[in-house]
Specification:
The protein has seven helices and ten strands. The chain is of the alpha+beta class. The strands form two sheets. It has a five-stranded mixed β-sheet. Strands 9-6-8-7-10 form a five-stranded antiparallel β-sheet, sandwiched between helices. This is Adapter protein MecA 2.
Length: 199
């Protein structure tokens, strides 16, 4: 289990599939929020507090990204409390209440590239999957490729991950942030469009 502080209110935790197996958790079970998964989550939060000082206080949002061969990346963000809820928390400070957890299983994967040439190289390398749904964004001087993995077979997903990792990295920015603040360059058909104009 690896912990990385991403900001004042955000932390990323990586759990390998070996870690899950040691805890008796199957890959599909990670989304079922059973007892073992809840125990794992609070172990993660304890590790995050001990290693980087990230403390759960109030509502948090959790995003999880599965990686075909490596494991699961979990991004936990502290969510600002609604004013009346904050007052309620003060009034009921003696009560031992669990924080609200908003869980989102991502339906796609977001990769970040330092420059446009790396995006083109990645697009050329995955030319066999022209029909995949991929959107290209520009945000803070870097390029982001959001790939929807809903229609891909597991073997295809593994191959795509390996290729994209050669030219870019898994992004910690979410698609929602890109939709709000980034510039959408190509929607849905990014791989096909890039090869059409730059091949």
């Amino acid at each position: 289990m690896l912990v990385e502080r991403l900001g004042k209110n955000k932390v990323r935790i990586f759990i390998s599939y070996e870690d899950l197996e040691e805890r008796g958790i199957d890959r599909d079970e990670i989304w079922q929020n059973g007892r073992k998964v809840q125990e794992l989550f609070w172990d993660m939060m304890e590790r995050a507090y001990l290693e980087v000082g990230f403390e759960v206080m109030g509502p948090i949002a959790v995003e999880a990204f599965t990686m075909p061969t490596e494991g699961v990346a979990v991004i936990v963000t502290q969510v600002p409390a609604i004013p009346e809820e904050a007052d309620k928390s003060k009034d009921e400070a003696d009560e031992d209440e669990e924080p609200v957890i908003l869980v989102d299983q991502a339906d796609g994967v977001l990769f970040v590239f330092d420059d446009f040439e790396n995006v083109l190289s990645a697009a050329k390398a995955v030319h066999a999957w022209l029909d995949i749904s991929a959107s290209l964004y520009h945000y803070k001087d870097r390029y982001y490729l959001y790939v929807s993995d809903g229609q891909l077979e597991q073997t295809d997903t593994d191959s795509l991950w390996s290729i994209f990792h050669e030219y870019g990295n898994l992004a910690v920015t979410t698609k929602a942030v890109l939709d709000e603040y980034g510039k959408l360059i190509v929607a849905d058909r990014a791989i096909e469009t890039l090869l059409q104009y730059f091949n």
